[in-house]
UniProtKB/TrEMBL annotation:
Subcellular locations according to the entry: Golgi apparatus membrane
Protein source organism: Streptomyces asiaticus subsp. ignotus
Main localisation: Golgi
Lineage of origin: Bacteria, Bacillati, Actinomycetota, Actinomycetes, Kitasatosporales
Bilayer topology annotation: Peripheral membrane protein
Protein name (Swiss-Prot/TrEMBL): GPP34 family phosphoprotein
InterPro entries the record matches: GPP34-like, GPP34-like_sf
Length: 201
């Protein structure tokens, strides 16, 4: 199991403290990929840019795709830009991967047998790994979960022991999620104003 897979299982298992947005989850999954790849020496982060390193196969198709997507020529891509590029549709890709691996199932409605139901984790070693990591308040998983509203913010500097590169990625995820929320609020205000014009208000 990887950090992105653990994070996705946690989002399916734990009631969020605010509504979970798919775009937020995709950004956090991309950040989780970067953090795992830092651990395999597939990249380093210099001046908040991704500098590719060794790219040994990880054994995980999605992580290998992430590593293959790095810009290999200077100037290297900023972490935040890569999160936006990689994150597009990533939550759906991870849901599909977990379903293919038998880690989740779809809860179907009896009266809608052809409609895909809610994704539910099955009892598996992967789920138990994610649950154990969650229960231990593992700093990286806890910080990613807090960024997308699955839990309250962990203790200050909780992820600091994980290293500078990890802290940089976690900060970039948090910034991207806040930027996406600001964009959602801006669009909601514009739509409300447009509706008011049509109502003659």
């Amino acid at each position: 199991m990887t950090t992105p897979r653990d994070l996705l299982i946690v989002t399916l298992d734990v009631a969020p403290i605010r509504p979970l947005e798919r775009g937020d989850l995709s950004l956090a999954l991309a950040g989780a990929e970067l953090i795992d790849l830092v651990g395999t020496e597939a990249l380093t982060i210099e001046d908040e840019r991704i500098v590719p390193g060794l790219c040994p196969p990880t054994g995980d198709r999605l992580l290998d795709e992430a590593a293959a997507s790095f810009v290999r020529q200077p100037p290297h891509e900023p972490v935040g830009d890569w999160l936006w590029r990689r994150g597009r549709g990533l939550s759906a890709a991870y849901l599909d991967a977990l379903e293919e691996a038998g880690e989740i199932t779809r809860r179907r409605h009896g009266w809608l047998p052809l409609r895909a139901g809610q994704a539910v984790p099955v009892d598996s070693p992967g789920r138990r790994h994610a649950t154990d990591r969650w229960a231990s308040d593992e700093p990286v998983l806890a910080t990613l979960a807090a960024a997308i509203g699955i839990r309250e913010e962990p203790a200050e500097d909780a992820a600091g022991a994980a290293g500078d590169a990890t802290v940089t990625v976690l900060a970039a995820v948090n910034d991207a999620v806040m930027e996406l929320e600001a964009e959602r609020q801006r669009r909601a205000i514009e739509e409300a104003a447009y509706d008011n014009i049509w109502r003659g208000q």
